[in-house]
TrEMBL record:
<dbReference type="InterPro" id="IPR052743">
    <property type="entry name" value="Glutaminase_GtaA"/>
</dbReference>
<dbReference type="InterPro" id="IPR033433">
    <property type="entry name" value="GtaA_N"/>
</dbReference>
<keyword id="KW-0732">Signal</keyword>
<feature type="domain" description="Glutaminase A N-terminal">
    <location>
        <begin position="105"/>
        <end position="320"/>
    </location>
</feature>
<dbReference type="Pfam" id="PF16335">
    <property type="entry name" value="GtaA_6_Hairpin"/>
</dbReference>
<dbReference type="Pfam" id="PF17168">
    <property type="entry name" value="DUF5127"/>
</dbReference>
<dbReference type="InterPro" id="IPR032514">
    <property type="entry name" value="GtaA_central"/>
</dbReference>
<feature type="domain" description="Glutaminase A central">
    <location>
        <begin position="327"/>
        <end position="670"/>
    </location>
</feature>
<protein>
    <recommendedName>
        <fullName>Glutaminase</fullName>
    </recommendedName>
</protein>
<feature type="signal peptide">
    <location>
        <begin position="1"/>
        <end position="22"/>
    </location>
</feature>
Length: 681
């Protein structure tokens, strides 16, 4: 019996090895593939380690909870599970995955089912300057049958109410709009703006849609609906009442064909009242044109060709930008960062007026604490906007400045965020985090990034008085900061933090450039000399920056990145040369930590630092980030925090806590040095 067990184990291992070696990953196997990533509430992924067994693994919401989303195909009467069929129907076979690829907008998987080959293309458009296209809360799945022998082929796909965030009480409906067939699944009894414990929206509706001439539909218990397809290759066009675990489904009959043929599905999550901004409901920008969901998703399906053409150009731009900036390792990183960044943002207009002249953007601090429009999260993200969509900086900042202009905010420094819990932008809570110097410097950086990238002075002019207030705060408090939090809030509130003083110095120099007043720039440079040349914030020999004045350990400095980006020269070349020499000496097993007292690092600040150094130091930052992204140790959507050395049960290179945060825009910091606003739609 023991030898039989060993034989079974050996056979299982052999099978696993054969499966894992049969698949080709391009450009690498990432921690998680984006499948449908368009907003904080439409965010579906599959771990990279599960791509080889795509047929039996479920999509996951960014938090890791499973979602029902399947694709099944019949080829000459034999049924094959292509994707997401965790409990295969009797008489079905799992397809074999041979290729898995990602670009900045597409995740594609090639599978073999019997005598035919299929490609599943999960396409989440990123349209940096087309607000209508970008705001549509839907994503595409295209199933392409490759040319082959003359086979009779049918394609089936379904979803269930897990996409609504609740499975205990829902309703569903079916309608048509033009050629589009549309299912909507809605939770019952949920409060507007409510989320479940996994961060899913409990209000609104999940949407699944497709179009085609040989199409059948059905809703009902999952076993009933799938059995109908397996047995008949078509659905009954009947709609049973919602039932727990039930599905809504489509079936396309491709007929008998040897030609390449494709069908496209649209999956989404809609919320008419999407954001609560200071008590007034915001809605998606797209609703100014397509107010009703069936019409919106019908347009989305019709827009596929144009959206895909744009995505090809964007994919090419991201690829070429990465390669020209620092090679293929860097382009791999950038490509995986794009959808995650834009997928944390929603573009809105007032729900009552639908006035597109009053457009705003809101960003969720996904997985860390759920804040809305956190200023330092926007700062971490801004390099990608600087390159691709600088108007986003204004759209994200305006709600913050408008809130700070109300009587509800009375501080003389910039706010940390405008709401503790997305999507409620109802104001900074009394017990919320405050980072006076960090955020005051950040809003100045972001305002100038927008102005420098676009040439527009409208934002600086509109909010001139507030910007001056925050610059004055930096001038009065920045050189010797009082005990307060920094972006590394794990340190707690410390006085005389060097990185805060650097932010103040560069912030003042930036403010001088923003308003054309050289006196502020002069002060910023004087402070830069004190901090570096006079060793106020360094060790005695000027080899490294310290966490606090005169106190070790060292700290990874990222707040002088805007100094280089904007060409301000607040800090001398010696500061950048010294850190270039120093960082390689403190690299741990899997990367450079955030400071000398920690065993973990953050990819956003490592990316800022990589842009400020050269030579071997830059090599280390980029190669370590690429190795972390592709090491096979992680399954969460690209975490921006990871262990650089082993810690307890964690290995060096394992992610630490965070997942799916939009801060991956920081990975474009090096690329941004080559120029702003390089994308034109």
């Amino acid at each position: 019996m023991f030898s039989q067990a060993l034989g079974a184990v050996a056979l299982a291992v052999s099978c696993l090895v054969s499966v894992s070696t049969a698949i080709t990953y391009s450009p690498v196997q990432p921690p998680s593939y984006p499948l449908a990533v368009r907003s904080p509430y439409l965010s579906a992924w599959i771990p990279g380690s599960e791509a080889a067994s795509l047929s039996s693994n479920n999509a996951q919401f960014w938090a890791g909870n499973k979602l029902t989303w399947s694709v099944i195909a019949r080829v000459n009467g034999s049924t094959y599970n292509l994707f997401g069929v965790a409990s295969p129907p009797e008489g079905t076979t799992s397809a074999t995955v041979t290729e898995a690829t990602y670009t900045s907008t597409h995740s594609t998987f090639v599978v073999t089912a019997g005598s035919r080959q299929f490609t599943l293309d999960f396409f989440s458009p990123v349209s940096p300057k087309n607000y209508l296209r970008q705001s549509l809360p839907f994503s595409y799945l295209t199933v392409t049958l490759a040319a082959g022998d003359s086979s009779s082929v049918q394609i089936y796909s379904d979803i269930d109410s897990k996409w609504t965030g609740q499975t205990s009480d829902s309703t569903w409906s079916h309608t048509t709009s033009g050629s589009a067939s549309v299912f909507q699944i809605s939770g019952v009894g949920a409060a507007t703006y409510a989320q479940n414990s996994d961060g899913q929206a409990l209000w609104g509706s999940a949407v699944y849609a497709t179009s085609g001439t040989s199409l059948s539909t059905q809703s009902g218990p999952i076993s009933t609906v799938r059995k109908q397809f397996v047995n008949n290759g078509t659905l009954s066009d009947s709609y049973a009442d919602w039932t727990p675990g039930g599905v809504v489904a489509f079936s396309h009959n491709l007929g008998t064909t040897a030609d390449e043929t494709a069908v496209t599905f649209a999956i989404g999550h809609v919320r008419e009242e999407s954001i609560n901004y200071l008590g007034a409901a915001q809605t998606g920008y797209y609703r100014a044109t397509y107010k009703e969901t069936p019409a919106a998703v019908a347009y989305f399906l019709e827009d596929y060709d144009d959206a895909n053409t744009e995505s090809t150009k964007l994919d090419d731009l991201v690829q070429s930008t990465g390669i020209s900036s620092y090679g293929t390792n860097y382009s791999d990183i950038l490509a995986l960062s794009v959808r995650q960044t834009y997928g944390g943002i929603e573009i809105t207009i007032p729900n009552e007026s639908l006035d597109t002249s009053d457009t705003r953007a809101f960003i969720k601090e996904i997985s860390s604490d759920g804040n809305i429009n956190t200023v330092d999260v926007i700062y971490a993200t801004f390099p990608i906007f600087y390159i691709l969509s600088p108007e986003y900086l204004k759209l994200l900042l305006a709600p913050i400045f408008d809130y700070m202009a109300t009587s509800a905010y009375t501080k003389n420094y910039a706010v940390h965020e405008i709401g503790a819990n997305y999507p409620n932008a109802t104001g900074h809570p009394a017990d919320g985090e405050e980072m006076p110097i960090e955020e005051s410097g950040n809003v100045i950086f972001l305002a100038y990034a927008y102005q420098k990238a676009t040439g527009n002075t409208d934002f600086a002019n509109t909010y001139a008085a507030q910007l001056k207030t925050y610059a004055t705060y930096l001038q009065d408090n920045g050189l010797y900061p009082a005990a307060q939090l920094s972006l590394n809030d794990a340190l707690g509130a410390l006085a005389n933090q060097t990185n805060l003083a650097i932010k103040a110095a560069v912030g003042l120099a930036t403010y001088g450039a923003l308003i054309g007043d050289a006196s502020y720039t002069t002060v910023g440079k004087e402070w830069g000399d004190k901090i570096w040349t006079d060793h106020l914030g360094t060790d005695a020999n000027g080899t490294r920056f310290l966490i606090q004045y005169g106190i070790t350990p060292w700290f990874l400095v990222y707040n002088h990145y805007p100094d280089l980006l904007f060409g301000l020269d607040a800090f001398p070349d010696e500061a950048y040369n010294a850190t270039t020499n120093f960082y390689p000496t403190v690299r741990e097993t899997a990367g450079v930590p955030l400071d000398g007292s920690l065993g973990w690092g953050q990819t956003n600040w490592q990316s800022f630092a990589a842009a400020t150094v050269s030579g071997d130091a830059r090599d280390i930052f980029i190669s370590d980030l690429h190795a972390y992204m592709s090491n096979g140790l992680n399954s969460a959507p690209f975490s921006d925090r990871y262990w650089v050395e082993a810690s307890g049960s964690y290995s060096a290179g394992e992610s630490y806590s965070f997942r799916a945060r939009p801060t991956l825009g920081s990975h474009f910091a090096l690329a941004a040095l080559s120029g702003a606003n390089t994308w034109s739609s």
